[in-house]
Amino acid sequence: MSVAASSDPILQGVGNTLLILSGKGGVGKSTATVQLALTIRSMGHRVGILDIDLCGPSIPRMLGVEGRDVLTTPEGNWVPVCVDEEKRLSILSIAFFLDSKDDAVIWRGPKKNSMIKQLLTSVDWGVDYLIIDTPPGTSDEHISTMENLRSANVLGAVLVTTPQMMAIDDVTRELTFCKRTGIAVLGIIENMSGFVCPNCSDCSNILASGGGEQLAITSGVQFLGRIPIDPRLTQCTELGQNYLELFANSPVSAVYKEVVCKLLRDDSEKMEVEH
Amino acid sequence: MSSVPENAPEHCPGTNSEDAGKASACAGCPNQQICSSGATRAPDPDLDAVQERLSSVKNKILVLSGKGGVGKSTVTSMIARALALDESKEVGILDIDICGPSQPRVMGALEEKVHSSGAGWSPIYVGENLAVMSIGFLLNSKDDAVIWRGPKKNGMIKQFLRDVDWGTLDYLVVDTPPGTSDEHLSIVQYLSSSPPVAAIIVTTPQEVALLDVRKEITFCRKVNMPIIGIVENMTTFVCPKCKTETAIFPPTTGGGKQLAADSNLQLLGQLPLDPRIARSCDNGENFLTEEPTSPATASYKSVADQIVKFFEGQS
What we know:
The structure holds two protein chains of two kinds.
Chain A: H1 2-7, E1 14-21, H2 29-42, E2 47-51, H3 59-62, E3 71-72, E4 78-79, E5 81-82, E6 89-93, H4 109-121, E7 127-133, H5 140-149, E8 154-161, H6 165-181, E9 185-190, E10 195-196, E11 203-204, H7 211-219, E12 223-226, H8 231-239, H9 243-246, H10 251-274
Parallel strand pairs in A: 1-7, 1-8, 2-6, 2-7, 8-9, 9-12
Antiparallel strand pairs in A: 3-4, 5-6, 10-11
Helix pairs in contact in A: 2-10, 4-5, 6-7
Chain B: H1 32-37, H2 46-54, E1 57-64, H3 72-84, E2 91-95, H4 103-106, E3 115-117, E4 120-122, E5 124-127, E6 130-134, H5 150-163, E7 169-175, H6 182-191, E8 197-203, H7 207-222, E9 227-232, E10 237-238, E11 245-246, H8 255-262, E12 267-270, H9 275-282, H10 287-290, H11 295-314
Parallel strand pairs in B: 1-7, 1-8, 2-6, 2-7, 8-9, 9-12
Antiparallel strand pairs in B: 3-4, 5-6, 10-11
Helix pairs in contact in B: 2-5, 3-11, 5-6
């Protein structure tokens, strides 16, 4: 098995990889993945998204490409599904392999692990940046991904949290996971931070506020940004619309631009060091 | 259910399979002899011990959702607290979210540790008639990550079911992680042999959540788990200042109501997105007694009543 592992190239045709992690579910990992991808693409890069949430894949819906077929190359590799005509944003998700959208992937660990291995080795990407969207937790999917990524170019992990303590607890554990598996943490995004009432413009901190920033400070990790709740963003992810294009001047789009600048600045600095 | 070991050869039929030890993939596998002897297909010897322990636990409720962050843990704690308002009933909470245990915080028992006695592990009592067990009580520090693959998580769940000394319980409410994988298969496998057991499905109104929740319903149907009904959480947000309602997670495809209709299930309740609920969960307070007049409190009590009625109908 180890022989096969070393001969299978990991993430072919990928310039660099970002991992989106969170111990907690429902904090907006997939939404952040999509917004980061759209923002990076708007800066002129080719971007791919690999959705390794096998039991709850949501990326195809969020980008409006549900139900597409995945083509296979003559060599037997998968071709990711292109979201745009210019082929600058392509994605792969297990959702494309299911017969119906109600189909459940009821798999125990070993089967999930072999699927993840295949997703990491058998896709022809051709992108500058690949963003990997993960399920919540610190278990099979995460351990397998880390094991397989050792030989790939990985920028590091972006942790997504919401401000309340219930989420911070789980994200703290995810930080421990990153430390133990030796993956660099590029920073923390605090999502769903504050909601401005459309009627009276009063800001409510529905899920508290500042928890993500506090966690970044205490754990010595870069704080990437605080993203407010915007119902127009949930609406866009529901309908598979491009929020960045429709609401380019919104506060949310501005924060994502800042976040991407911070992330890619790290990348270009790193490349300069390497050359 | 798949029983393919971690390090199995390719195309391993699984140790539970009729073909175990006999398939072409088994040739050369060091465990071929054990598999072909039939020993691996014998029932799990711990199953009896689990059944024995659960014989004093009457009604079991699984709180499920394909999606994370929809409020499974909040709903679990609220249902348990609502059921425990009836002082003649004994209620337990079992948290099987191994990688992300939230019950210690939600139930205000963050610093507690589990003690073991001759009778097994003692759960943490957060009230006269309300006990909690979670892997959170077994960790040294709250930063500790449980980096375990499936089999180890399954072992932990089995140990909870076999070794926790609940005493006599009327209701055991089980909080689960998101998904349809190891934890879910294991808990269903163990609880199904000790009925009555039924599931509550938690969702939020938007399609991106419903996508995953439909998969969970498919899962329940495949493993023959009865479903009590659906709870829709975070339905609307009411501005505390001007009382305007906003659907932060818009029900673009009909939300929980449509899901219930499509899947022929009951909608047990629609709960608001209330900052006070998030705050009392963070602080481990009992929202039901802190805010007795809140509409959310009434909704949670109504959900609990429907659960009681469901199980009364079973016996």
